[in-house]
Automatic annotation (TrEMBL):
<protein>
    <recommendedName>
        <fullName>tetrahydrofolate synthase</fullName>
        <ecNumber>6.3.2.17</ecNumber>
    </recommendedName>
</protein>
<dbReference type="InterPro" id="IPR004101">
    <property type="entry name" value="Mur_ligase_C"/>
</dbReference>
<keyword id="KW-0460">Magnesium</keyword>
<feature type="domain" description="Mur ligase central">
    <location>
        <begin position="51"/>
        <end position="265"/>
    </location>
</feature>
<dbReference type="InterPro" id="IPR013221">
    <property type="entry name" value="Mur_ligase_cen"/>
</dbReference>
<comment type="similarity">
    <text>Belongs to the folylpolyglutamate synthase family.</text>
</comment>
<dbReference type="Pfam" id="PF02875">
    <property type="entry name" value="Mur_ligase_C"/>
</dbReference>
<keyword id="KW-0436">Ligase</keyword>
<dbReference type="InterPro" id="IPR036565">
    <property type="entry name" value="Mur-like_cat_sf"/>
</dbReference>
<feature type="domain" description="Mur ligase C-terminal">
    <location>
        <begin position="287"/>
        <end position="400"/>
    </location>
</feature>
<dbReference type="InterPro" id="IPR001645">
    <property type="entry name" value="Folylpolyglutamate_synth"/>
</dbReference>
<keyword id="KW-0547">Nucleotide-binding</keyword>
<dbReference type="InterPro" id="IPR036615">
    <property type="entry name" value="Mur_ligase_C_dom_sf"/>
</dbReference>
<keyword id="KW-0479">Metal-binding</keyword>
<dbReference type="Pfam" id="PF08245">
    <property type="entry name" value="Mur_ligase_M"/>
</dbReference>
<keyword id="KW-0067">ATP-binding</keyword>
Length: 426
């Protein structure tokens, strides 16, 4: 049985792993494989599903984990980044693992991680595998971090791989064309093993070159969506494994597509239609087109931080009959914020610019003013000031968008919850 750690020890180990964010990302599998080896190969204790893609991989992974849980499978869910709490990254059967359990495991593996020089994401990937083994997880749904081929999660050996889509993000690492990024993301596929995807049909030859047993939406499988407004969508998936119709609370056409892809993955894993339906209904995925009532305003929160994601949000708003609303906006300076703003600008009745104060990557709000020509602007220095400015507008609904780190600071303010006070890079 693990002993109780002191608060100083807990704080010290969390501070250590957060500090490793500053060393950046170092693609490659050698360090994480060495760390997993020193931990006794914990990833071999459960089956793994890898979920990659540019957008929607988190909601797809969360939907699939909920379907597995509904089917009686003890499921682990590993996602990144977290919004408010570090423990959000490690979920078993729908519940975050206790912080004491997470930090105790982190303390035990820290010397080994230092020995191999593991990066922040390599540490937490191995930590997830260790925690899932200890929790008796049967299937772990692992969200890929960056790309695929050289991402730390790819050190695990998947029984099924899922690729949501391919967009232009992280181009400085993955390449500046859809084709180049598709090649990197296709690295999570395994020759001869099952895989499902929702990528654009013109990119499928790149994925098929990996030799996986691939089912693609639009070819081997078909997706039909009936929007239900603020109640989500009814999604029908027809596949070689059968046809299932589910109701998902995920909003927008992109939310429906993610739920449909998760349902296709669940069918490939042998889950019953009843389990797929129950899991789809039960999924919750905070910060992704999430609705939170606040002081008479319907607050819509979405972490879209690239043009494709913002375009999906704008399309979803229009489908819901929203033609103009205030937008609280802030994002990382290394993202295509001009492209994100271009997608949102036609819907913005006013814009409140701000920043995630815990993210050193956050762009200066004053530098974003030129992205919204002709739109009434307010520039603020932190999320609380942004919400104060928004409250003065007395709008029936508003959107917070541009960065998951921004949402991680706004969301606790809306809900009256406490939040971490640690620098956020990854």
């Amino acid at each position: 049985m693990l002993g109780r750690m002191s608060d100083a020890g807990v704080s010290g180990d969390l501070a250590w792993v957060f500090a490793r964010q500053r060393f950046g990302m170092h693609p490659g599998l050698g360090r994480v494989e060495a760390l997993l080896s020193r931990l006794g190969e914990p990833q071999r204790a459960f089956r793994t599903v890898l979920v990659g893609g540019t957008n929607g991989k988190g909601s797809t992974a969360a939907s699939l984990a909920a379907m597995l849980r509904a089917g009686g499978v003890r499921a682990g869910l590993f996602t990144s980044p977290h919004l408010t709490r570090f423990t959000e990254r490690f979920v078993v059967d729908g519940a975050e693992l206790p912080e004491a359990e997470v930090t105790a495991a982190l303390a035990q593996m820290r010397p080994l991680a230092e020995e191999v020089g593991a990066s922040f994401f390599e540490v937490i990937t191995a930590l997830g595998a260790l925690l899932f083994r200890r929790a008796g997880v049967q299937v772990a749904v692992m969200e890929v971090g960056l790309g695929g081929r050289l991402d730390a999660t790819n050190a695990l050996d998947p029984v099924l791989s899922v690729l949501t889509n391919v967009g232009l993000d992280h181009t400085e690492v993955l390449g500046d064309t859809h084709e180049a990024i598709a090649r990197e993301k296709a690295g999570i596929l395994r020759a001869g093993r099952p895989a499902v995807t929702g990528v654009a049909l013109d990119l499928l030859p790149i994925l098929r070159a990996e030799g996986a047993d691939l089912w693609a939406l639009g070819q081997e499988a078909e997706l039909r969506v009936q929007g239900l407004g603020w109640d989500g969508s009814e999604v029908t998936v027809a596949s070689p494994s059968g046809t299932v119709t589910v109701h998902t609370p995920l909003l927008g056409a992109h939310g429906a597509a993610n739920a449909g892809l998760a349902a296709l993955a669940a069918l490939r894993l042998g889950l019953s239609p009843a389990a797929v339906q129950a899991g789809a209904r039960a999924v919750q995925w905070p910060g992704r087109f999430e609705v939170i009532p606040w002081r008479g305003t319907r607050m819509l929160l979405d972490g879209a931080h690239n043009p494709e994601g913002a375009q999906a949000v704008a399309a979803a708003l229009r489908a819901l009959g929203v033609e103009g609303l205030p937008v609280v906006f802030g994002g990382a300076g290394d993202k295509d914020l001009a492209g994100v703003a271009a997608a949102l600008r036609p819907l913005a009745s006013a814009v409140v610019l701000t920043r995630a104060v815990l993210s050193p990557r956050a762009a200066d709000p004053a530098d974003l003013a030129d992205l919204f020509p002709g739109v009434p602007l307010t520039v603020t220095e932190n999320p609380q000031a942004a919400l104060d400015a928004l409250a003065a507008l007395r709008a029936p609904q508003a959107l917070v968008c541009g960065s998951l780190y921004l949402l991680g600071e706004v969301r606790p303010l809306l809900l009256g919850e406490s939040a971490e006070d640690r620098e956020r890079w990854q």
